[in-house]
Each structure stands twice: as C-alpha cells, then as structure tokens.
Amino acid sequence: MTTPLLEVKGLTVAYERDGSPFQAVRNAKFSLGAGDTLGIVGESGSGKSTIAFAVAGYLPENARIASGSISFAGSDISSLAARHRYGITGKKIAMVYQDPAGALNPIMPIGEQIAEVYRLHSRCSRAAAREKTVDMLHRVHLRDPHRAYDKYAHQFSGGQQQRIVIAMALAAEPSLLILDEPTTGLDVSVEAEILALIAELRTFVKASILYISHDVRVISDTCDRVAVMYAGEIVESGPTTEILRSPSHPYTRALLDCLIPFGAVKESVRLASIDGQLDIAHATGCSFAPRCSLAEERCHQKSPPMAAVAENRASRCYFYDKIPTKDIRRSIPARRSNLGQPRPLLNIVNVEKQYAVRGNQTRALASVTLSIPSNRVIGVIGESGSGKTTLARVISGLELPSSGSLQLGGAKLHGRVQNRPVEVRRAIQMVFQNPNATLNPSHTAGYALRRAVQKLTGLRGAKCEERVRELLASVKLSPRHLEALPEQLSGGERQRIAIARAFAAQPALVLCDEPTSALDVSARAIILNLLADIQASTGTSYIFISHDLATVRYIADEIIVMYLGDIVATGSAAAIFERPVHPYVETLVNALLPSRQRRDLQRVESSPPTSNAPRGCVFHQRCPYKVGPICEEPPPWQTSMGHRYRCVIAPERLAYLQRSHQVQVENN
Ligand code: SF4
Ligand code: SF4
C-alpha cells in the first residue's frame, strides 16, 4: 500500500483560554494521497481552519497539539518545532489565506516577492527567477505579466491579488497546497474566476490540495473528497458527489438545506435554517444533538463513533441510514405582500461622488439618476469598487454627494444626515454588514433598542417598553435577549437586534449593506426570511446590497447593476437574472450557474481599480463583444424585455452574439 502524502490521526488541538484548555479540534482523522483534493467544510467555530494551521505548523502561541499525529510524506511533523520545519512549511506545504492583501508585502513589487521564492527554493539566478515569475504570473492569468512584475499590491484588485498569492505559493513547487477560504469575501464573478483557476491548476500542478471553506458549493466545485466538521469533530467524510447527493449525517443534510436553491425567490420559497447554535463546549453525547431533528435519548448520553457507512464513506451518527435524501422543508408556504402598488419614494438625480486619493480625484459615483419606489426591494449588484456602498452612504447622509440632488417623498433631502429633520432620519435607516460596528459592546441589546425607540419615536415608559417587545418579537427573539451584551449573542442574533433597531420607527426605506455577508448559511437564511417577512407586512422599501447574487435574486423585486460607479442596467429581478442582456450582467449572472454550466469566465478578468475608470462605456476594457472606438463614447440606453441597459449593441444582436459565443466555448 502506498503511503499517503498527508495522514492525520486522532488529532486533538487545544487552545488556552482564560487559563483553561478548550479543544477546538477533537480526534480528527483523514488522509490525502498525492494529487488528491480534500475539502473541509463547516460553520465558523467548527475547527476547520485550526486543522489547516496545525498541518501547516502555524498554530498560534496559545494553541497546542494535545494528542494525535500529523504525518507528511511518511514522517511525523506534529511534534516538530517551527525551526525544524524549515524545508517543509512554505516549500513542501504552502498555504493561501482568505486575505490576499495581508499576505503580500505592500512596499515590495509583487514580482520581486515571487522571484524571491524561486531564488530561495530553486537556488536560481536573478534573471532565471524573473523569467520563472513572469511565466507563473502568465499561468495564473494575470494581465500583462511583464508590467505586473514591477507593480505593488495596492495596484491590483482583490481577485488579482489572490492570483498573485496563488502564484507565490506555487513558486515553491509544494507537494501540498492548503487553501484557507481563498474566495471568501470576493465578489461572485471574481470567486468564479479563482475557482476556475484552481480547477485549471490541477491539470498542471502536481500538488495535493486541502481546501478549507464554509461554503459547500465551493467544495463541490473543487474537491473530489470532503470532510464535514461540526463543533471540532469530523462528522462525515467521503466522495464529494456522493455526500452531496445523499448525506449520512443530519448536519450535512441541514447545511445543504440552508443553501438558497438555484433561482429561488421569496414569494415561493421560505429558506430552511438550523435550529439553535453551535456549542463547542457541549458536554456529553453527540455534539449535534441539541440541534438535531433525529436525536433520541441515547444521542444525548453517548457520543456516536465515526464509523464506516459504505465504501470510502464514514459518519458519526447512530442513524446514518435514516437521513432524508431530499430537503423536506421547502414545502413551508412562503409569503406574499398585500400592500398594493408602488408609489414614488426616493429620487436621485445626477448624483456624483468624487474622493481625493493621493492628490488624484477618484470617481466613486458617476452622475447616477434613479427612482426608488415604495413597497419594493431594490437589489444593487456589482463587484467591489462598483459604487454600490457609496450610493447607500450618500442616500443615508453618511457621505455628502459631490453634485446632484436627492428627494424623499417629493421634498429635498439634505446631503448630511445631521441636517435632516427627525422625520427624515426616522424614514431612512441602515443595516450594516457588521452589527458589532454599530452595537456598543458595553450596552445590552435592550438598551440599544430602548434608545432607538426613544430617540426616533419619542415614546417613554410603558409605551416604549411595549414597542421594544414588539420589535423583539418581529425578529423572533425573546425578552431574555434584552439583558444580553453583544458578546453574549451569536452573529445572527446581533444582526437581528440591528434589524429590530432599524425598524424602531417604521421607516419608509431601509438600506441593507451586505447584511448577511458575515453570517453562516443558517444565520443567513434566518435573516433573509425575517427581512422578507417584515417587508411583506410593512411595505418598507429596501435597497439591498450584496455581492452574493443568490441572496439578491431571492429577496429583490428589482435590480440595479453598477460597474465602476455607473449604472449599466436596471430591470425586474426576473429579467436581469433569467435573461441578462448587458455583457457585464451576463458575466455576473454566469458566475451564479453551477460550475459545469459556466461559460469561459477567465476571458473576463476582474475590474480595474475605480481610479482607472475608462472613458465612454465603463465596461469596454473587459467586454468580449466590444465593437470598436464607438464603445469609448458614452453608450445609449437600450430597452429589452423587462429591463434597460447601456450599450451600443441592440438587444437582438447582443442575444445573437451571446449565443454564438456560448456555442464557440462549448465546442472548444
Ligand atoms: S447521533 Fe443522534 S443527535 Fe447525533 S447526529 Fe445522529 S441522530 Fe442526530
Ligand atoms: S458599449 Fe461596447 S464595450 Fe460597452 S458593453 Fe456594449 S459592446 Fe461592450
């Protein structure tokens, strides 16, 4: 039998917290052969990244391997001190992290950083290292690698930086490449580009891949095998396609059920979530028992062993053969709004926003004109740097527009929130991505809600208390949460408090800026259900910003598509997602498709920084259908079924070009 490249046996990793040990990983066991790909998937706190750090030898100082072993190429490396790992970590084992900017030296050209790896590991000359670096940058599809060599990290977008970090990891020609959430936080189209790149790398790089992700879909795109982690334990493992088709553990089933089904919309689907919270310190029995719908008495008394359930498959569940193969909770009736026709609510006319960056003017919004109606959810989509968050901040009064005007209900809206009368501040509220940033850590949830109710409605005493409890009930929290400090609440509960606070005075418009992006799949489902329910019952309009297109598709009625500060298309959600016409919208929506149906995404590399916004059509530097110099003039608005878009090409011609391109790609 051949020795696996990586073999982890009985691995337990303990952290020292407040003077007592706490096991983040318990008794983990898996192996990885040469050229294999294994995904480790689970919610935050499941222990998946701790395993990656233990294998790479990067555990923090307050963590130690309490028991078990990690064998790499036949040698136990778990007990090696950092200095004895030289020649293994960074060379034979390379790691790519979530935050590429943090992995790059900001004051050294990126080419030099990669060339240094070649010089160290291959002991080649400067000239040879430069040549190899340019070749590697070309392989990871970085545009113009010769010029890119001399640029600095800040001159690249997030997706380009991640390509550079992957190039640097590969320069050491590792036997094992650990990818720790390498696409988390990237826009959907950039994520698709990086996933396509990783799939392509597998054809020319011999390294085995250990892929850590909270996203089952990403793992299904990239890995042959998967290990599902819950509360520090691997609870199921086996071939990815088999596990996703018929899971043998209730947690895997629940994780899959929480995903937003492809193309699902709020009117027809209520999202499934997992009851309760992950409890890493769970005392006895199966760690998933408090949240498991199949749990019986013995599950609470004795932890089930990890046992083989089929060839190459194992599960840590007494009832592995009773897991439903299909999500049975989708039949719950969804919601329908009965609040009548939309009326004009907010008008934005020629709003521009410029920032001075290092002495240069950078355009964040380019003469944006649009109307937001009442009783509608408007989804705003576009990659980082498209201007969607700036738009929300200008509407909320947190940013002053450089020019242009805003009207709410026909009356002029002052640029600065401080200059807006209380009824206007009441009418426009905001929910941010990170509720921690807006909840004072030393004040209870009850204090935050009471303060918002008093400030915005003037209610006091019993009436204020009554409103606070109404708000709490609307976000499905109980009165006991009123006494909790933010740190005593889960991420999802904190976001629910932030939503309750935004609705304190029955706003007309709530700006939701990536409200679910920092949450696990189950908490995301809970928040989306809540937002959709509240909107259906109150008629409040939302401007809903997210880089997660499945989320926007689910909740939005209408869509605005932005690119480099400009609006390039608007229309009903159905038209934009089901019949995308504008070439940029086509690229974005394409990234939503299951990987096997995506069309040649690498032909379109991620957007340039906003400081380099081109003249004319903002998309012309990436557009696969660019006609010629005419595209470098401002394009006209065109109208197609259910939406409007800016392009020189008429809808029928664009549809023809898109079909031809698809056929061409499929034939290649
Ligand atoms: S052992 Fe029991 S509680 Fe644990 S996952 Fe299986 S059915 Fe659920
Ligand atoms: S105007 Fe030209 S470059 Fe812009 S989207 Fe249309 S075809 Fe592409």
TrEMBL record:
ABC transporter domain location: 6-256, 346-589
Top-level taxonomic group: Bacteria
Presence of keyword Nucleotide-binding: yes
Residue ranges crossing the lipid bilayer per the database entry: none
Keywords from the named record: ATP-binding, Cell membrane, Membrane, Nucleotide-binding, Transport
GO function terms (MF aspect): ATP binding; ATP hydrolysis activity
Single biological process term from Gene Ontology: transmembrane transport
This protein's record includes keyword Nuclease: no
Subcellular location per the Swiss-Prot or TrEMBL entry: Cell inner membrane
Stretches assigned to coiled coil: none
Membrane topology of this protein: Peripheral membrane protein
One cellular-component annotation, GO: plasma membrane
Similarity remark: Belongs to the ABC transporter superfamily.
Matches recorded under PANTHER family: DIPEPTIDE TRANSPORT ATP-BINDING PROTEIN DPPD, OLIGOPEPTIDE TRANSPORT ATP-BINDING PROTEIN APPD
Job of this protein: Involved in beta-(1-->2)glucan export. Transmembrane domains (TMD) form a pore in the inner membrane and the ATP-binding domain (NBD) is responsible for energy generation.
Name of the protein in question: ABC transporter ATP-binding protein
Biological source species: Bradyrhizobium zhanjiangense
